[in-house]
């Protein structure tokens, strides 16, 4: 089969997946369980590490993946959403699956998915299908371990069929309240649902409201819990060229001189969580430490596209997918600590169900000017509505309005370069507000 034929087949499969409704959500495990049963339960062919939380899941999953590979394991990684292609959601040994493998696995699954659809009032969702694709791909590869990020919540998320031996919970904040509840406690209850009997739980530092349901769930199912700040955590961190250098207290000892090519205290926290998860999976702890050189190698090879990702210089253009106040606070802190911008212009486009006012209030102290726009999502907040909120926070003189992302980026770069004498080294543009916004900008800027 030629590359052209491969790609045409992939486009057809992608269209078939999209026809299920990219944003349609149904929280029930029966259908995905039925499909996986028909496939021979591929999710039981390998052990898994399962991640939930509000922010930091994908970055932490990528770090875990990189660490496991540094120890010689073949890995599968399932994360969402994707930036450029659905293949990014399903990675083997750190690389997105090929179009050919994606198509081949889909064609094996599609007839069985139709059987499940025929027996149900509602068809399987887009996320159900990509989850089944991931689990089948991992079994076929085969992988030694799967690193699996929940789509939304935990207890009723399609990924929760794996019943993982290691459950990771990143920091929990308010997000997706229409699905998970109006309080942090309600949201934590949903997310604690990935904790199964006998599991080892690696928990990032949490607000008390979130910690309580997690600990109660651990007690209920006899799970072992290791908490950031008690059993593990970041001891020291220093800003370095292209990232930061950490000293981490792990479950099995202290790991020094750990370089990660990522910015911000939140990424240092993610690194500590990732290391503890890998220690738990590999059986380290109780004074048995992992090989420090392998840990250094794994972290140094980590990347996290769309998380304060630099895609241009002079002016510096950063892409960041922060889409809720909890995530944006971490982004702003990293900008203030690690980037010495003399002038910074923002581009903001958000989804309609997000706390846009909260995002704007956090951005106001660090941005000279903001350009508001709409991203390509059908759920995008209308630009006029976002502009009205922006003017209330920034004042009318610091807000520019453009509807389309190409125009917004052009306007932001022009504004950043204006009235700046000499070199543009201290000038920057931050494009943020949604993973969709980052994906739109990435397509434009990385051509």
Q: How would you describe this structure in keywords?
A:
alpha/beta, Protein-Tyrosine Phosphatase, Chain A, 2 domains, 8-stranded mixed β-sheet, 6-stranded mixed β-sheet, 15 helices, 17 strands, 18% strand, globular
Describe the structure.
The chain is of the alpha/beta class and 447 residues long. The protein has 2 domains: 3-300, UDP-N-acetylmuramoyl-L-alanine:D-glutamate ligase (3-Layer(aba) Sandwich); 309-445, Mur ligase, C-terminal domain (Protein-Tyrosine Phosphatase, Chain A), CATH 3.90.190.20. The protein is 41% helix and 18% strand. The protein is built from 15 helices and 17 strands. The longest helix is centred in the N-terminal third of the chain and has 20 residues, at 99-118. The radius of gyration is 22 Å and the shape is globular.
Strand order of the largest sheet: 4-3-2-5-1-6-7-8
CATH class of the largest domain: Alpha Beta
Radius of gyration: 22 Å
Question: What is the mean predicted local confidence, pLDDT?
Answer: 93
Please sum up the structure shown.
The protein has two domains: 3-300, UDP-N-acetylmuramoyl-L-alanine:D-glutamate ligase (3-Layer(aba) Sandwich); 309-445, Protein-Tyrosine Phosphatase, Chain A, CATH 3.90.190.20.
């Amino acid at each position: 089969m030629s590359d052209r034929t491969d790609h045409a087949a992939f486009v057809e499969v992608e269209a078939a997946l999209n026809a299920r409704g990219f944003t349609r959500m149904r929280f029930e495990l029966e259908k995905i369980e039925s499909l996986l049963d028909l496939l021979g339960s591929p999710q039981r062919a390998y052990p898994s590490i399962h991640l939930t939380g509000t922010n930091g899941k994908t970055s932490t999953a990528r770090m875990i993946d990189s660490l496991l590979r540094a120890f010689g394991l073949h890995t599968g990684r399932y994360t969402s959403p994707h930036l450029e292609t659905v293949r990014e959601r399903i990675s083997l040994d750190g690389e997105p699956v090929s179009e050919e493998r994606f198509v081949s696995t889909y064609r094996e699954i599609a007839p069985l998915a139709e059987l499940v659809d025929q027996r149900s009032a509602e068809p399987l969702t887009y996320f159900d299908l990509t989850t089944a694709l991931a689990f089948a791909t991992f079994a076929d590869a085969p992988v030694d371990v799967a690193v699996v990020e929940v789509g939304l919540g935990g207890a009723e998320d399609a990924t929760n069929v794996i019943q993982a031996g290691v459950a990771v919970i990143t920091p929990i904040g308010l997000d997706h309240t229409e699905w998970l509840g109006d309080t942090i406690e309600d949201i934590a209850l949903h997310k604690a649902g990935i904790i199964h009997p006998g599991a080892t739980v690696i928990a990032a530092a949490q607000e008390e409201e979130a910690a309580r349901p997690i600990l109660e769930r651990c007690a209920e199912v006899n799970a072992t819990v290791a908490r950031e700040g008690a059993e593990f955590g970041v001891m020291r961190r220093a800003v370095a060229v292209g990232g930061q250098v950490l000293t981490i207290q792990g479950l099995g000892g202290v790991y020094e001189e750990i370089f990660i090519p990522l910015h911000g205290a939140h990424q240092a926290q993610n690194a500590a969580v990732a290391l503890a998860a890998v220690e738990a999976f590999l059986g380290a702890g109780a004074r048995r430490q992992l090989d420090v050189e392998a840990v250094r190698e794994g972290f140094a090879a980590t990347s996290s596209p769309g998380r304060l990702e630099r895609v241009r210089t002079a002016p510096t253009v950063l892409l960041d997918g922060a889409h809720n106040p909890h995530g944006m606070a971490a982004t702003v802190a990293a900008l203030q600590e690690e980037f010495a911008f003399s002038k910074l212009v923002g581009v903001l486009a958000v989804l309609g169900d997000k706390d846009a006012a909260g995002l704007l209030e956090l951005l106001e102290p660090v941005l000279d000017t903001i350009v508001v726009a709409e991203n390509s999502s059908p759920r995008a907040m209308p630009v006029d509505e976002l502009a009205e909120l922006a003017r209330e926070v920034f004042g009318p003189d610091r807000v520019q309005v453009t509807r389309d992302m190409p125009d917004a980026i052009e306007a932001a770069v022009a504004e950043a370069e204006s009235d700046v004498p000499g070199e543009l080294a201290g000038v920057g543009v931050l494009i943020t507000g949604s993973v969709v916004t980052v994906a739109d900008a990435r397509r434009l800027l990385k051509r």
